[in-house]
Amino acid sequence: MKYSSNSSRPIHIAVSGTPGAGKTTLSKRIAKILGIKYISLIDVILANKLYQKYDRRDKTYDVSMGKVEKYLQKNLNFRESYVIDSHLGQLLSKKIVEGVIITTCELSVLNKRLLRRKYSAQKIRDNLDAEIFSVCYTQSVDNKKKTIKIDCTKKLKEKEIKDITNHLRRHLLLQRPL
């Protein structure tokens, strides 16, 4: 089902959460079901050098959220609906996203996913701690975003994805279907 850009208004959401918690899978499925644009924020950050430096020890980028905000405000078409996939999505301003879905995952499963990605022991510990303390959720709520949590420990069934998209329609005032 696609959404017309000339009906009510577009939806701008982020799917965030700890690395390995299911953000990309969920984001792509939501975008496909709703027929809206999928944006990988890390791809945008890397392609446009929106980071200050690369930390070789931790294998992470020190991202400049100011640069990210400016780039997105200049380059996004706000008349179109989109879903942004990023573990930083909860930090984006309300000008960029009006709602955030936080993916969560059971710690034992998350640990296995991060091991498969060959994360260092310290990076795994840091990400497990972020999951334990609900860092992404807390940041989203603190930033006064409409926020929902979705457990992505197991692969979500099609009915569950449709329930999520229906929830988005009701609570984020999605555009009417064609």
Could you walk me through the main structural features you see in this protein, from its secondary elements to its overall organization?
The chain has 178 residues and is α/β, with parallel strands linked by helices. The protein has a single domain, classed as P-loop containing nucleotide triphosphate hydrolases (Rossmann fold, 3-Layer(aba) Sandwich), CATH 3.40.50.300. It has helices at residues 23-34, 41-47, 65-75, 107-116, 121-132, 135-142, 158-171, and strands at 12-17, 37-40, 51-55, 60-63, 82-85, 99-104, 146-151. The strands form two sheets. The protein has a five-stranded parallel β-sheet with strand order 2-5-1-6-7, sandwiched between helices. The N and C termini lie close together (8 Å).
Would you state the CATH class?
A: Alpha Beta
Structural class comes to alpha/beta
Number of spatially distinct domains? 1
E-strand count: 7
Mean pLDDT: 90
CATH architecture classification = 3-Layer(aba) Sandwich
CATH topology: Rossmann fold
Order of helices and strands: EHEHEEHEEHHHEH
| Biggest beta sheet summary | 5 strands, parallel
With strands numbered from the N-terminus, the spatial order across the biggest sheet is 2-5-1-6-7
Low-confidence runs (pLDDT<50, min 5 residues)?
Answer: 1-7, 174-178
Output the number of helix runs.
7
CA radius of gyration is 16 Å
List keywords for this structure.
single chain, 178 residues, alpha/beta, Rossmann fold, 5-stranded parallel sheet, two-stranded antiparallel sheet, globular, disordered C terminus
